[in-house]
Structures are given as C-alpha cells and as structure tokens.
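tool_log.txt
---
The assistant was asked to compare two proteins side by side. It first ran the structure predictor on the initial sequence, then on the second. Raw inputs and outputs are pasted verbatim so the downstream comparison step can read them without reformatting.
(1)
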Amino acid sequence: MDRDAHQLAGAVSRTRDIAVVGGGWAGLAAAVEAVTRGHRVRLFETASQLGGRARSLAGDDTVLDNGQHIMIGAYRETLGLMQRVGVDLQRVLLRLPLAMRYPDGQGLQLPPGAPLLAFARGVLGCRHWAWSARLALLAQATRWLASGFRCDAQQTVDTLTHALPRAVHRDLIEPLCVAALNTPSDQASGAVFLRVLQDGLFSGPGSADLLLPRAPLQSLLPAPAGQWLLQRGALLHLGERARELQRVPGGWRINDQHADAVVLACSATEAARLAEPVAPAWAAPAAALRYEPIVTVYAASEGTRLAQPMTALRAGPEAPAQFVFDHGALGLQPGRFAFVISGAAAWVARGLEHTAQATLAQAAAAFPAGTWVTPLRLLRVLAEKRATFACTPGLARPPQHIADGLFAAGDYVEGPYPATLEGAVRSGIAAARAAGA
C-alpha cells in the first residue's frame, strides 16, 4: 500500500467491499479513491477497455481518440488523479496560455500572470475589436465578478450576454460556450457558463491554461489507472455488463457478487435502468436527460504545420467546426488534424459524410492560401452521439445519493459543472467517499 493509501486508510472505520459500475473517468476516479482509502474494489465495465467516452480507438495503422479532448489548469482533481496513478503530466500534456486565435490571427489570448490582470490585458490586446467592445466586455466581467458569478437559473447564455457587442459574442462567447457546455449559446445555461468562467478564468494563476493531450487518451488515465488498481488488488471485470442490482441484507448484490456499497458510474441511461427497481424517483430524471453530440473529423495534409496547436474556427451554416487541433504540433502524428464540432445535433442530422465534406471545405477556405501543403484528405469521422447532457437552464440533474449504500457518479450528476472530465472525476471521488463512510 502506498503512502497516500496508508494516510487515508487510518481514517477508515472498517474495510468495505465497494462495487463500481462503469470504467470511464468517473468510475476510475471512484475506484482509485476507494482503494486509496483502504477498501476492496470490484469494477464492472461493459466495454473491453477502460475510458468510457474519453478513450482511444486502435485502427489498422494508427491510434485515434474517440474525440479530441482538452483540459484546463483549473482541472485540479483530474490532474491530481492522473499524478496519483503515476502519470507524468509534463510528458502527456502541453500547457499553453488560453488562446482562442483564428486563422487570420485575430482572437483573445491571455498572458501569464494573476487572473484578473491577465484577463484585462488579454481583452485590451484584442485590437480587432473596437475600443467600445473591449471596454464593454471588461465592464460586463466586472459586474459578473461583483455578483459572485451568479445569475437567474432560467437565463440562457444569450440572454446573459445580450448586451455585449456582436464581435465579442461571435469571437469569444459562442465558441467558449459550445466548447465548455457542448450546448449552443441560445440554449445553454447561463448559470453554469458563469461557473465555468469563474473557475476557468478567475480562480488562480494558470487556471485558464489550456492542457492539450500530446499522447493518446488511453495514456492519460484509463491505462495507468487500470494498472494501478490491479497492482493494489482491485478486480476489473472488463466486457461484463452489470445485469441487475439487488438489495440484500447488509448491502447489495450485483452479478451474483456481494457489495457493502455500490457506485453507479455508468451512463445516466444505464444507471437509471439499474436503479429504477429500487429508486424510481431517482431514475426518472436520470432517464429523462437529453443529449448533445460531438463530431470529430480527422484529416491529413502531409507536410502541413499550423501556426498553433489549437486554432479557433468561425462556424456557420456551411461551416461545422469550431476548432482544429494540429497533432504534429502536439507531438502526435505529423500532418494529422482533428476538427471538432460541438453541439453537433444539426450536423449529425445532415449526415456524417456531408459534415465531413463541409468541414474540409471550411478548412480550405478559412486558412490563408498555401497553408495546406497538400490537399486535406479525410481519414475518419467519429460521432459521439450522446457525448454530454444538454446543459440547459434550470436543468434538474440527479443527485449523488440514490439509496442507502447506493451512489451515482458521472458528469451528469447534480453539481455546478457541465459535462467535463473534471466534473466526472470530482463526482467519482465524492461518491467513493460517501460509499466508504
């Protein structure tokens, strides 16, 4: 048992058998936390590999992630979990100051330093915005700060920001909203958006930094966490679905295995199925959640290197993508690019082939002539159709506590954050602590 486990195990009143259903980032966080606290853990994962919706897919001659994920410096619990299972953060993540720069060089870029000063300097440096627009954004940010980053729960991001100039809304608010909440700004929760701004931009030095993966997602947490758990005696049942959950004297039975407590860290739909016989009132809102897809278009242009690892794109009726990532600049495959389409329901409805071709046309038009050394060619289109819950105003999300000894973990569980890796990890840690109490 490592030092952290020894320190925490002393606080555990008794060792418990804890079952974790789901091997995504929430389930791995729950399992690692429970083992660290001295409990016996059995994890069930339907898929043949760990990682959930943030995993790597092996192809014929390359490894692609099921979507292009990013983190920010404010993801403290996620980064701490990665370090706990032995991940070298400097090796797998490229840290850069927040920049939402477009192919023409326009856009916001924050300098290093104290959050408030860095934000002010970054906004004032956006010379493509009129002075009136820059001052309007700073004034609005000051009002949000004075209000404690709170607003009416029924406000959308558009109503929250309606007084901002169109250029600020187009270049900053819309792409930031869809990147963080995966929900279009006219439908997204203003309250959750403000919480993202508070933690991401104003919670401390480096909180807004972009952390871009320069290794496959499997190397960031799923594989190291799985190895860490196995080395400490946890049992991992990969390729085994949790068939049913039964309340029994002294705890629970799942797949004919006893558990003192259970953490449902699977999807909300699967958690609702398992919980419905014992907690129908909890299962109803979990089953009722609506979802937004994310589409990732992988393309190649041999010999091409973009000016920055992540470039913002102006989306429109025939321009699907909001961001493109240069994998060569990230130390991955040179000449490979990931175009990300968040809040992609309308594009999924139009078909993935149409979406891919529209993305390639958008890329050709968005960058200066000569950027693409060879014409972009399509590699693969991946659609995560239930990538995140639709983060709408006043959404009633299921609580962590389901029943005695039964808890939920996942990015959809009640809390202040949208569906992010950090939200998933935080909920997993919290559920494990509750399960072991």
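(2)
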Amino acid sequence: MLDQLRERIRLRHYSIRTERAYADWVRRFILFHGKRHPISLGAAEVEAFLTSLAVERNVSASTQSQALSALLFLYRDVLNVELPWLDGITRAKKPQRLPTVLTRREVQRVLAQMDDTPALVCRLMYGTGMRLMEAVRLRVKDVDFEKRVITVRDGKGAKDRVTVLPEAVLEPLHAHLTRRRELFDADREGGPSFVYLPAALGRKYPNAGAEWHWQYVFVARSYSIDPRSGNERRHHLDEKMIQRRLKAAAARAGIAKPVSPHTLRQLLRHAPARIRLRHPHRAGTVGPCRRQHDDDLHARPQSRRTWRRQSARWPLSVTICVRQQVARSRRPSPPG
C-alpha cells in the first residue's frame, strides 16, 4: 500500500519531501492501530490518532494538519474510498504568530561571521529574496551577469520569476563559478558528471545532464545516491549545512533571536513601504540598479518611472495606503 501511495504522489508531481512525510504518517497511523488495514478503520480511529498527536505527543497545529492531509490523500486518492465523515473532523486551528525580523545591522553582523560558500549563499538570499531551496538548487544557466538578473525556476507554487543580481555579490559569485567549473572538468574526466534533470528532460535530452549550463551553482563536496533513480552523482549543497552555519554565526555575533535562512527574507517582507518599494524583487521588476553603500546588498533602481508605471495598475485603495505609509515615514520625528 505504501508503494501505491508513492506512485500516486509521483503521478501528481509532488516533491520527494511530501512523499516521505505522507508515507511516514501513514505508517504511524497503521502502527498506532495495531497494524490494521486503513480500509477497516473509520472516523473514530482517525480522531483517536490525531488526538494522541496533540495530547500525548504535544505536536503543533501545523504538524497535526499535515498528518490529517496525509490520511485524506491515502483514503481519497489511494484507496478510492469516499469519506463523508472526514469532512466533520475538527481541524487544528493554526495560531497567529509574529515573525522574527532582523535589522540591517544585525544581518550585517551575522554575515560578517560567515565565510566560504555558506556566506555566499546567505548573502545571495538576503540580496535577492530567494528561499533556501531556491538558492541551493540554482543552476549555472539561470545566472545572467550581463543583465544582472537571476531566474528562479520552479519556485513556490511551481512558478518561475526573475530577481536582481546584487552588485555586492558579482565578484564573489563569479570567482565561485570559476572554481565550480574546475570541479566540473575534474568530474567529467574521472567521475560522474551528470546532474539531476527535472521531469523527463533526462530521457528527452540524454546528454544534457553532463553539460555545464545545467550544473548546480552550489554543490556538495562528495557524491551521493539519487533515492529514486539510484544513480550516483554530485548533488547540490545540503540545505541543513547552511542552516547550521547561519545559526552558529548568529550565536557568535551575539544575536539573541532565532535566526534561520527564512529570517533573512523577513526584513523585506515586514519592512516599511518606503523600503519595500525600492527593492526590485518585491515588485517583480528588473532594471539598472545601484547601491547606496558598499556593505549594502540591496540593489535599487535608478529611476522612479518603473514604480509609477506599476502603481498605475494598482487598485486605488492600495495606492492610497502606500502613499500614506510613505508620507508617515517622511515626517520628521518629534523633538525630544
């Protein structure tokens, strides 16, 4: 049954992380009820399993919802069982949490404590707004030094987008790609040089995986085995290593906040409107950019015509709200 579950997940092109999570929750559900087949279980057994997660295991609401989603997928898509009683199951209410937002000086202190490839990855995430997995899965063909842009492929929601390439990381990234090319040439001479290709591109273009422009920008030091195909190849950099390095750098910098790669993006998502508007990747625009300071990774457009053209397409309520926020931010502070 777990094999059928994996086949259905791959048929829907879900990620391998979703496949592992759903298979693990189904296995836990079966073991919780004494290895009984799920088709013989009902609403009472599902509620008992979810209740044990909340009461005995003390899991969060998001974890409990993930377990319920796995069971819904099992019954509806694998076992083909109509379950009207599942609609009446009480879902855990997700709490409203305030995000952790670092200041620009705190980000600079953290990045100053990092070096080598993890530092370059974090600086790239901070300057471009990319997520962690988008950064480690970046390929050579998606970096355009001439146009100063980066194309993010298959981002959240299976969508592509374009973001700016900060001037502060141009030289470090170019030097990194030079060393990466030397490693690729060494792999092509004495080891496997093929890289993972999405969907069926590996069968459509058999030799594309060994070409330079398809290679990952940030790769691991050693080879690994593909869990689905079983092929040995050099995969992209482990995202957990970036998380550990960033956490250790925050501790050395004396930052008394929980710092993660996602925290680097929170500065722009929860900043005032005057900061968000002048960052190109927030508005989805690409153009000639400049920096205000040498230590500033955020590129800014040289002209405001782009923002005027975009604001003309905004709803009137959004335009009024943004103008009010910008006006409040420009008011002089009261004396004292």
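---
observation on (2): The two ends are 70 Å apart (CA to CA). The chain has a mean pLDDT of 77.
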